[in-house]
Specification:
mainly alpha; 11 helices; membrane; transmembrane
C-alpha cells in the first residue's frame, strides 16, 4: 500500500528523486543533498529519508556502472572506516532526535551547505590524507540523518586536487558504499518498511531517468548556472525548514 501523501507532497518527492538522479549521473554532483530537505517541506524527514534510500541504491547501481574504474581506490578505502563510525553514531542517536529536531538540523545543514558551495575556498595545496577519517565520519553521520554526505566529502576531496572525472567517480563509489552500510540500520529502525518500499519501487523509473539525464547533461548544459540555481533553492529550503522547526 502506498503512503497517503498529498499531491503537493508527491510532486516534491518526484522532483527530489529526479534531482538526486541527475546528481548521481555526475551533473552538479552533491546537490542530491537538497532532496530530503525539499521532501521534508511536505512529509516527515525520517519518512523522506526512508523512502529515498532504496532509490539511492538503485541509482548507485546505474552510476557506479558508468563511473567504475575511474575512481581513486585509495581515497575510497580511506573513507570506509569513518563511514562505519558515522553511520553507527547516527543509528545510536536516532531515537533521541525529534521530528522538529531533525527538521531544524536539516535546515541548518542546508543553509551551511549553500553558504559553503557559494564561498568555498580554493586550497593552495592538497590537504593530508589524515583528514579522511574525520571527514568520512561526519559524512557517514550526515548521510545517515538526511543522505547529506556531500558537504564533508567535498570539503576533503576538493583540496585533494583530483581531476574532475576522478572526483566524480570517487564520490559516486563512496556514496554507494555508505548507502549500502545504511540499509541494515534503516531496516532495523523501521525507516525502510513495506509502505516506503512500494513508494520507492514506483519511483524507480524517475530515478533511472534522472541518472541518464545527469550523464547526458554534463557536456551540454551550463553547470555553473545550474549550481547557482540549486544553491539558491537549498538556501531558501533551509530557511523554510528552520522556520517550521522553531515556529
Amino acid at each position: 500500500m502506498l503512503p497517503d501523501y498529498s499531491l503537493i507532497a508527491w510532486l516534491l518527492i518526484i522532483f527530489s528523486v529526479y534531482l538526486t538522479g541527475v546528481s548521481k549521473g555526475g551533473f552538479a554532483g552533491g546537490f542530491g543533498t537538497l532532496s530530503v530537505p525539499l521532501m521534508a517541506l511536505a512529509i516527515s524527514p525520517t519518512q523522506a529519508a526512508g523512502l529515498l534510500l532504496p532509490l539511492l541504491l538503485v541509482m548507485d547501481v546505474f552510476a557506479v556502472k558508468a563511473w567504475w574504474g575511474k575512481h581513486d581506490r585509495a581515497e575510497v578505502w580511506r573513507f570506509v572506516p569513518g563511514l562505519f563510525i558515522g553511520v553507527t553514531v547516527g543509528t545510536l542517536l536516532f531515537g533521541s532526535l525529534s521530528e522538529q529536531g531533525v527538521r531544524l538540523a536539516l535546515g541548518i545543514l542546508s543553509v551551511v551547505f549553500a553558504a559553503y558551495m557559494l564561498l568555498k575556498p580554493v586550497a593552495k595545496k592538497p590537504i593530508s590524507s589524515r583528514w579522511a577519517l574525520p571527514a568520512a565520519s561526519v559524512c557517514g553521520f550526515t548521510s545517515f540523518i538526511a543522505h547529506a554526505g556531500a558537504p564533508p566529502m567535498n570539503m576533503y576531496l576538493m583540496p585533494r586536487k583530483l581531476t574532475k572525472e576522478t572526483f566524480i567517480a570517487t564520490c559516486t563509489v563512496t556514496y554507494a558504499v555508505v548507502n549500502t552500510i545504511k540499509l541494515g540500520p534503516y531496516m532495523w529502525l523501521g525507516e525502510v518498511n513495506m509502505t516506503s518500499a512500494w513508494a520507492s519501487l514506483l519511483l524507480v523509473p524517475v530515478a533511472w531517468i534522472g541518472v541518464r539525464n545527469g550523464l547526458w547533461l554534463q557536456s551540454r548544459v551550463n553547470e555553473k548556472l545550474f549550481y547557482r540555481l540549486v544553491i539558491l533553492a537549498m538556501f531558501l529550503v533551509g530557511i523554510n525548514l528552520v522556520w517550521q522547526a522553531v515556529s
